[in-house]
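Hi everyone, sorry if this is the wrong subforum. Our group has a chain we'd like a structural model of before ordering constructs, and none of us has done structure prediction before. Sequence below.
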Amino acid sequence: MPLASALDSLDEIARLLHGKRPVVFLDYDGTLTPIVARPELAVLSNQMRSTLRDLARVHTVAIVSGRDRADVEQLVQIDSLVYAGSHGFDIVGPGLELQHQEGAKYAPVLSRAADEIQAQVGGIEGALVERKRYAVATHYRLVAEGDLPAIEEAVAQAAAAHPELRRTGGKKVYELRPRLDWDKGKAVTWLLEALDLDQPDVVPFYLGDDETDEDAFRALESRGIGVLVAEEPGTTRARYLLGDPGEAQQFLQQLMHLESTD
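Answer:
Right subforum, don't worry. Here is the predicted structure as tokens:
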């Protein structure tokens, strides 16, 4: 069954919010900014930053990203937000902090895996191996189609050599992460409790576009509202759809309006 547009469902969402307050969790790449050729090119627009700043004045807003926390914090530059980087392994916000101690122990094996992948794909034009604090991301958006099997094989070999890491995917990226029971969904659940927002009168919203965001959609399926940002949605646990970051910005603006008129 096709997902309904969140923008076309504002009356329904307003009814769901009646007498309650939203808390807003947002992915970064593909949700607040368009998907771009290289990670460093995903710059937040002034209009989106203004919308986020206005939203944070009235609601709790958290960015939950696969990027390193310091990276996404520098890109957004709004002190009043909560930042959960590395799929929630590294969280900082007003009055709270979480550094996943078990995850930190994986630094040596992540570095070895990154070196092994780099040794195999370093000669492939367009390949980018990104050593994050709690993960290794191998980007292949700029790789010629004929070279894609070599990229996948390099990541598969590293994953097989290091079973303490688990392989996940995304939009034109393979990622190796610690094999721990921790993801964006667990991070969102932790944040609700840490912020004292695990309450019956709170409706958590999560906007995301990628495979890793499904963990958060799943965690909030029975208690919140997942919104997938995608032009062509596949199988998802989200409840509503937005076509692109431009529609996501419109929705966030409307969310403020819905609350103010409740």
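For your construct planning: Residues 84 and 253 are 22 Å apart (CA to CA). The chain has nine helices and 13 strands.
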